[in-house]
Write a structure and sequence with these properties.
single chain; alpha/beta; seven-stranded mixed β-sheet; three-stranded antiparallel β-sheet; 13 helices; 12 strands; 37% helix; globular
Length: 399
């Protein structure tokens, strides 16, 4: 018996495709510093588990398909502080941001429709595009200018009558870029002109460094009907395993369609919603402390990478990722070599090859995404291993 063609279109995640090589390395006794997965190591706030422990229900029942009202109310209050008010029926709780993305695409796109993206972009978007048969119209951005968008006219060249939405993350996974006001203004203008949705993945909103600011597309009142916001507690509160996200939009037709999808899968998990609601009561200095910690790691990563001959990158501005060009012909081959054939005193490093973050074949071959969700000591050690690995690889493999 055959499986469906849509599932056959699914590709292995570039973030996890090297796992078999990593597992073999561990069996050989090699310690791996994981720069490949965006898993925060900051402790999940205790209020999450405390709230769950106080749950008094005798039966763990289905919650409302839209989501638990106390959690929705907390999200409303959170966005009120950002200067944007959403009604309860404009917020749908989802099983993580990933389900929110999938449901949003299902609500907007038919097979063969087109989506506008700036490449590189979060690789798991491709899983949804492939399953739903959505064509990618990719706008190229470059490491040399920090992966910022080109001008409005260049972006518009990639829009066709079948383009239904522009989709991006801000701050960006995988590049760490934070979109400027001008970039967002250009997208808003084009969305209105071409009647497109804007799918704005804002799960890293709190992690912006220096004097930069992550501007929510929710603040753009003139395109409120076009905007779909994807949000999540995963990165903001270091609670990836809770799998609680949400989709927010003032477009009633869209929100009602998404609610019907939520009804089809019944509800998000009750206890996780209880814990999530408690997280929104944390004081503002929670974010300040987390941001300071990531900012310190960001500076370490940037400083160490810029010391390495041939590495091309700009200082990451947000989230906790960087996409960098390495002085190698093929970053995936180099990544495999690090796991199979190299170690420094029994230790090596793992990252995600950059090619999987592009829509255009052949791009990103010499790039890697690295996540700095490691403590400072481990991050410095990982950078030393990478530096020595590059020297040896260039001397012995690509000589």
């Amino acid at each position: 018996m055959d499986i469906s063609k849509r599932i056959q279109r699914l590709k292995t995640s570039p973030v996890r495709k090297l796992n078999p090589h990593a597992e073999d390395a561990v069996k050989r006794g090699i310690k791996i510093y994981h720069l490949n997965i965006g898993q925060p190591d900051i402790e999940t706030p205790s209020v999450f588990l405390e709230a769950i422990s106080k749950y008094k229900g005798k039966t763990l029942k289905y919650e409302h398909s839209r989501g638990m009202k106390p959690l929705i109310n907390k999200i409303q209050q959170y966005y009120d502080k950002l200067g944007v008010h959403y009604e309860e029926d404009e917020i749908n709780i989802t099983n993580g941001g990933s389900e929110g993305l999938l449901f949003s695409l299902l609500a907007i796109f038919d097979e063969g429709d087109e989506i506008l993206v700036a490449e590189p972009y979060y690789a798991n978007y491709n899983s949804f595009y492939d399953v739903l048969d959505i064509k990618r119209n990719a706008v190229r951005t470059y490491a040399e200018n920090g992966f910022h968008l080109p001008n409005r006219d260049e972006i518009e060249k990639h829009i066709t009558p079948k383009t239904k939405a522009y989709m991006f993350s801000n701050p960006s996974n995988p590049t760490g870029v934070v979109s400027t006001r001008e970039e967002l203004d250009n997208i808003a203008y084009l969305a209105k002109k071409h009647d497109m949705f804007i799918i704005s993945d804002e799960v890293y909103r709190e992690f912006v460094y220096g004097d930069r600011k992550a501007i929510s597309f929710g603040t753009y009142k003139d395109v409120a009907e076009n905007v779909v916001i994807i949000d999540s507690i995963s990165k903001r509160f270091s609670a990836c395993g809770a799998r609680i996200g949400c989709v927010i939009s003032k477009n009633k037709n869209f929100s009602n369609a998404l609610f019907r999808e939520c009804q089809a899968r019944l509800s998000a998990p009750t206890l996780e919603m209880v814990g999530a609601a408690a997280l929104y009561d944390l004081p503002e200095n929670y974010f300040e402390d987390a941001r300071k910690e990531y900012d310190n790691r960001r500076k370490i990563l940037f400083e160490e990478l810029t010391k390495m001959d041939g590495v091309v990158m700009k200082e990451p501005e947000g989230a906790f990722y960087v996409l960098a060009k390495l002085p190698v012909k093929n970053a995936e081959d180099f990544a495999i070599w690090l796991l199979k054939d190299f170690n420094l005193d029994g230790e090596t490093v793992m990252f995600a090859p950059g090619e999987g973050f592009y829509a255009t074949p052949g791009l990103g071959v010499d790039e890697v995404r690295m996540c700095y969700a490691l403590d400072s000591k481990d991050l410095k050690r990982a950078m030393e291993i990478l530096k020595q690995g590059l020297i040896k690889y260039k001397a012995e493999v690509e000589k």
